[in-house]
Specification:
alpha/beta; 6-stranded parallel sheet; 5-stranded parallel sheet; 19 strands; globular
């Protein structure tokens, strides 16, 4: 009987898969480099318990773990800066924003124009006016001074509402927008955007690049940043940087202290901490970093605290100026729920105590529009009559019956539950409906295809890029039923595009495991949908099989249970330090597991907490390559037969092996599919793949997994991390255990850090209005 230690010291469990105790060896060297303004390295962080920063990894924004106690919230932040990692309308709390939206709604005469479209037009008009005013100014407006008209009213509104001096309703006296109506059964579906084309590298003239290099040189920044700067700021990048050096923060990976140094070199004595240009750039950068950590918005208080930490003298004025300048948008979701003042309110009511302060959120328009578009699309699916083409659904389980009667269904469960959601695709096809399934990763699609057949299984990215059923005349996917597995990995922007691509009457099933780590991008769509309770939710009752399944199921509810493992399905390998952890990991992968369990090294995956440190992915991959496939690394550090992790897109890592190289780049074999990595992307998107982080491994499964938990990884552990890492094993799990009591404590007590999102209140507001 083998068991995970529960309240016992690491040495209390025997290593049943290793032949003998091995003396610890010196830890593998850990690469470390100074932070440089190179676009990607600047924001890279290492694993828990380490203080090194190194080259970027190819994984997504959700793949890196951080060294502080709040590691679970900041894990995605580290990865977003690494290469390859990574909608409705914004509700404004200003009189100007509301009056613009109200004017649009009042002037719209065509009945087919929805409120969402009117609100979007109002937002665009507002932003256009803001930009026009900015262009007309001869000099920057000092924060909090020289404002008049609607801009001054906007600042006063934000201050009054946040302080509780006035109710937010006092600034929203415009006409009430018409409620959204469910789509009529026979109404033609509106034209929707087709699948996005692959991003094309923008063409930049040689003159523009030369001008940018000159400005960078004068500011003491590396000339190598020129291409990234022009990509972020456009052809006029040199002029924009010369006028506002802090716009360098728009380049991914550049940090405020580096932008400050650049500004000092360009502006000299004119460079001041209270410069409005600096404050505006910092507000945008803070919200971008929040999005990397998964937030679609931040409270105004959080933004002010972050500004204060960056030596902004007056954070309150900086926030208000950023709002007035249109750098950020302001939201007060739930404001409509406040009671309206009565018409006969007298002096007694005026003398009443002021209303409680309303939480004000700040966000970037990119995520605000995506989140509101997603909410509107989900409400549309719920309100649209579902199509059945005259067919009758066959008899099925609870999930099939729920899908037969609703346009949107959420389904929760572990690995075994994937069969239930796949059965919906089969049942829908049997009923004569156009049905398809999609998964987050290529490995997820492979497992889905085993249940539905290869013609009905896709990845979400493949579905949006043109694979599968094609599009109808209106640009919508030609589907009646779509099942999305691994729905917990859907970020708000991807989901907004997916939902907008579905026709009215299509049934959407979002199926996922709420216990795993969240998506790499901003938002927490699946969990927000569950919390909103606006659609049928079906919880699977199928347990995951075997000792590994029993162990993982207990972790999901906060219990690290002892499990019976007669076939050595779960083995604990206690270690004293990180050097011994690396040694035992190599021994397990190369010898013990193939000999005792019968699983070859290529079918075993090592999962660890972070990239840096003496037992991170870099150290483990270096040791595993030396043992399993030694070589000089003649193809850019890689040799034929090397196991590699390729970040094909933000949030999606593909595992493959090196086949060879030629003038075009490095050629891989990824589960039988040939993949070419262009030579200019090899360094930034490809790493050795014997060891991954748990964020990289989400959505994939292997016959055997070795989870490495060195002592310095304790701060990076949480229930979601342990659940995700251990759950990647199908038949065998070895735990290289050096964190003592941190493991049971993490499972029992440490939950993922919450993400600030707006989807749940938006759904409530839309559906309440429709009713």
């Amino acid at each position: 009987m083998t068991a995970l230690p529960q309240g016992s010291a690491p040495g209390s469990t025997a290593d049943e898969s290793a032949e003998a105790e091995v003396a610890p060896e010196p830890a593998e060297g850990t690469a470390a480099g100074d932070l440089a303004v190179d676009g990607a390295e600047a924001a890279a962080t290492d694993g828990p318990g380490t203080a090194t920063a190194d080259e970027p990894e190819p994984e997504s924004p959700g793949d890196s773990e951080t060294p502080d106690a709040s590691a679970q919230e900041t894990e995605p932040a580290a990865e977003a800066a690494e290469p390859g990692s990574g909608a409705g309308t914004a509700g404004a709390t200003a009189e100007e924003s509301e009056s613009a939206a109200g004017s649009e709604a009042t002037d719209a005469k065509a009945p087919e124009v929805s409120e969402a479209a009117a609100e979007l037009a109002a937002q665009r008009e507002l932003r256009a006016r803001i930009e026009q005013r900015k262009a007309e100014k001869e000099a920057p407006i000092p924060a909090g001074t020289k404002l008049s008209g609607q801009a001054a009213d906007l600042l006063a509104a934000v201050r009054a509402v946040e302080s509780g001096e006035k109710s937010g309703a006092a600034f929203f006296g415009g006409p009430t927008p018409a409620p959204r109506r469910p789509a009529p059964a026979q109404q033609a579906a509106p034209v929707r955007p087709r699948a996005p084309e692959p991003a094309q590298a923008p063409t930049t003239s040689a003159e523009a690049l030369a001008s940018v290099r000159d400005v960078l040189t004068r500011g003491g920044a590396p000339e190598a940043l020129a291409a990234q700067v022009t990509g972020a700021l456009g052809e006029q990048a040199a002029e924009r940087l010369g006028a506002d050096p802090w716009q360098l923060l728009a380049v991914p990976g550049v940090r405020p202290e580096q932008a400050d140094g650049f500004a000092r070199a360009l502006l000299g004595a004119e460079c001041r901490p209270d410069d409005e240009r600096r404050a505006a750039a910092l507000v945008g950068w803070i919200l971008e970093q929040a999005a990397v950590r998964g937030h679609t918005a931040l409270t105004a208080d959080d933004v002010r605290k972050a500004l204060a930490a960056r030596s902004v003298p007056d954070p309150d004025e900086a926030v208000q100026q950023a709002v007035a300048e249109g750098v950020v948008l302001v939201f007060q979701d739930g404001l409509a729920d406040e009671p309206e003042p009565s018409e006969d309110a007298g002096d007694a009511e005026e003398a009443a105590e002021p209303a409680e302060p309303v939480e004000v959120l700040l966000g970037l328009d990119r995520y605000a529009l995506a989140e509101e578009s997603l909410a509107d699309g989900l409400a549309r699916l719920l309100n649209s009559p579902v199509r059945d083409d005259g067919s009758v659904w066959p008899e099925g389980g609870e999930l099939v019956r729920a899908v037969a009667g609703s346009g949107l269904v959420a389904h929760t469960g572990g690995e075994a539950a994937r069969a239930e959601s796949a059965a919906v695709v089969t049942a829908a096809a049997a009923a004569g409906l156009r049905a398809a399934g999609a998964a987050h990763t290529a490995d997820g699609r492979r497992r889905l295809a085993q249940l539905t057949g290869p013609l009905a299984a896709f990845t979400v990215a493949g579905l949006l890029s043109g694979e599968g059923p094609g599009r109808d005349a209106d640009g919508a996917l030609a589907l009646d039923v779509l099942v999305v597995q691994d729905a917990t990995q859907l970020d708000v922007e991807t989901t907004a595009v997916l939902v907008e691509s579905l026709p009215d009457g299509c049934r959407l099933v979002l199926s996922g495991d709420p216990g795993v780590l969240g998506p790499a991008g901003a938002g927490l769509v699946f969990n927000d949908l569950l919390a909103a309770r606006v659609c049928p939710v079906v919880a699977s009752r199928l347990p995951d099989p075997g000792p590994v399944g029993e162990l993982v199921s207990g972790i999901g509810i906060g219990e690290l249970n002892q499990v019976e493992a007669p076939g050595k399905e779960v083995v604990i390998v206690p270690v004293r330090d990180a050097g011994e952890a690396v040694h035992r990991c190599v021994q397990l992968l190369a010898d013990s597991i193939p000999r005792a369990i019968g699983i070859p090294p290529e079918q075993t995956q090592v999962i660890t907490v972070g990239h840096g440190g003496s037992a991170g992915t870099r150290a483990l991959n270096a040791a595993l390559k030396q043992r399993l496939n030694p070589g000089p690394g003649r193809f850019g550090g890689f040799d034929p037969a090397d196991k590699v992790a390729y970040a094909e897109a933000p949030g999606r890592t593909v595992i493959g092996s090196v086949v060879g190289a030629d003038a075009e780049g490095l050629r891989l074999d990824c589960a039988g599919a040939p993949v070419l990595v262009p030579k200019e992307r090899v360094e930034s998107t490809l790493r050795h793949g014997w060891a991954l982080t748990a964020h990289q491994a989400v959505g994939m499964r292997w016959p055997a997994v070795v989870a490495v938990l060195p002592g310095d990884a304790a701060q990076g552990l949480s229930r979601a991390w342990v659940y995700t890492a251990f759950g990647r094993a199908e038949r065998h799990l070895s735990v290289v255990h050096g964190v003592d009591q941190a493991l049971p404590r993490a499972v029992a007590e440490i939950l993922p850090a919450p993400r600030t999102t707006r989807l749940t209140p938006l759904l409530h507001g839309l559906l309440k209005t429709a009713e």
